[in-house]
Design goal:
The protein has a single domain, classed as Cytochrome P450 (Cytochrome p450, Orthogonal Bundle). Helices cover about 50% and strands about 10% of the residues. The protein has 15 helices and twelve strands. It has a five-stranded mixed beta sheet. It has a three-stranded antiparallel beta sheet with strand order 4-12-9. Strands 6-7 form a two-stranded antiparallel sheet. It binds protoporphyrin IX containing FE (HEM).
Length: about 450
């Protein structure tokens, strides 16, 4: 247990290398089963989804922050919340959010360095990507941005991630009201989140109907009706869904964009190909959802980033509520099942030369990948509800960045070390140089 809590990434990789695609380990009171091949992961997460729940400790830790969210629900509660939320995340709806996304990103990207070709600055990528994705999630949820509170909310979210990661590694959490180290920071962060979410919901309720936005996520959640069982979201459920969308939606995409920026800076040949595609398709025009199918190489750079650095790595832990048979193996009831996407993503059987950054693997004309070998968004019924949202957001922001800037690392700058803090992040704050490009010409659609 200590080895796994010290270095979850290293431990799961080592177990896979030494013991193969399915590993059974007794860790104190826990029977643990680690899965490491696409076939086995599919057999468990898809074919036996009905025999799984989220691991209870994860539910305990995250529910304190989120409340009764779709991410924490199980069984019929989950099915109902999932039905109520899904329409807000359909590909058609997400395409509609694209305008809100580019509106959020434009002012932040425009003012990074002085507005003259060749001007450059060393940019804190953690701050930049957190700010952009937070504004994106806030605009798509509430049609507003966070203004001056954005920095505080980012800090609060990092604090909550760190605390949650620590709590997941121990069997119980002492009450948050106790005067213990770290509890004041946790209470402060949770209060800040509650206030932000409650304020936006209250503001919306006070708006005259004809002035309230109709197209953002909050509007859809307020209007959502369960077609099967009838009913709508209760007040507590509404807050919890806003919180989970906010928390799950901004940090994951921020970390992914940060890794993408690093890979572009470290692989100038691939960045040049992506930039060439963006200039050919868009020129200086602001990208829209309809442009995305015309940007296959850019999309491939993002998918390859998610392969090398799957951001939401810690969520894929399950409890078997029944015995599960897969091939010749039996996973006993009550086992804790761990699926580590970075193990699957680094397997040379699926991805030859897995350590190298090769977006070409994800081009439409590349040989097909083994089914489920790439799974940054999870797999089965609990797959990420925001995956179209995230891919749309990241591709739009990446295109806008490449339109404006050339990314490079500083001479001798080492490759960042990946560290799991709920999301996979660079262990040290990442700075990259951004140099403003010559303005491109307007291109007509
Ligand atoms: C690069 C970005 C993202 C990645 C890599 C990612 C990954 C994941 C993963 C691995 C899961 C867990 C799946 C499982 O337990 O089987 C998940 C669940 C979830 N994600 Fe994402 N996510 C991303 C962005 C987003 C965004 C933008 C939103 C919302 C706007 C979102 C909302 C959710 C929700 C609500 C769940 C819970 C779904 C459920 O339990 O039914 N995610 N995500």
């Amino acid at each position: 247990m200590q080895a796994i809590s010290r270095d979850f990434l290293g431990y799961t990789r080592q177990m896979h290398r030494e013991w193969g695609d399915i590993v059974f380990v007794q860790m104190y009171w826990e029977k643990v089963c680690l899965l490491g091949s696409p076939e086995l992961v599919r057999a468990v997460m898809v074919d036996n989804a009905a025999s799984l729940i989220r691991q209870e400790r994860a539910i305990e830790v995250f529910s304190r922050v989120q409340g009764p969210s779709v991410m924490m629900a199980e069984g019929e509660d989950w099915q109902r919340l999932h039905r109520l939320l899904m329409p807000a995340f359909s590909p058609r709806r997400v395409a509609g959010y694209a305008r809100l996304m580019v509106d959020a990103a434009t002012p932040l990207l425009d003012r990074l360095v002085p507005d003259m070709p060749g001007a450059s600055g060393l940019i804190n990528m953690d701050e930049l990507t957190a700010r952009v994705t937070m504004d994106v999630i806030c605009r798509t949820l509430f049609s507003t941005d966070l203004g001056d509170t954005a920095r505080q909310v980012t800090k609060a979210s990092h604090a909550l991630n760190e605390i949650a990661m620590q709590e997941l590694m121990v069997p119980l959490t002492l009450p948050d009201s106790w005067p213990l180290p770290g509890k004041a920071a946790k209470r402060h962060a949770m209060r800040l989140f509650d206030e932000v979410i409650d304020k936006h919901i209250a503001d919306r309720r006070q708006m005259p109907v004809d002035q309230a936005p109709q197209e953002d996520v909050l509007a859809l959640l307020l209007a959502a009706r369960d077609e099967e069982g009838g009913g709508r979201l209760s007040e507590a459920e509404l807050r919890a869904q806003c919180k989970v969308i906010f928390l799950a939606g901004f940090d994951t995409s921020a970390k992914a964009l940060q890794w993408w920026a690093w890979l572009m800076a470290a692989h100038s040949d691939k960045a040049a190909l992506a930039h060439e595609e963006v200039s050919r398709v868009l020129g200086a025009r602001t990208p829209q959802a309809e442009d995305l199918p015309q940007l296959p190489y850019l999309t491939a750079t993002i998918k390859e980033t998610l392969r090398l650095y799957p951001p939401a790595a810690g969520l894929l832990t399950r409890r078997a509520v029944k015995e599960i048979k897969v091939g010749p193996w039996t996973i006993p009831r009550r086992s804790m099942i761990i699926v580590a996407p970075w193990v699957l993503h680094n397997d040379a059987r699926s991805f030859p030369q897995p350590e190298s950054f090769r977006p070409e693997r994800f081009m439409p004309d590349a040989p097909p990948l083994p089914r489920s070998a790439w799974m940054p968004f999870g797999l089965g019924p609990r797959v990420c509800i925001g995956q179209h949202f995230a891919m749309t957001e990241m591709t739009l922001v990446a295109a806008m960045l490449l339109q404006r800037y050339e990314l490079s690392k500083e001479p001798g700058q080492p490759e960042p070390v990946a560290q799991l803090n709920l999301t996979l992040r660079p262990a040290q704050t990442l700075f990259l140089r951004m140099r403003r490009r010559e303005p491109a010409h307007e291109r007509q659609v």
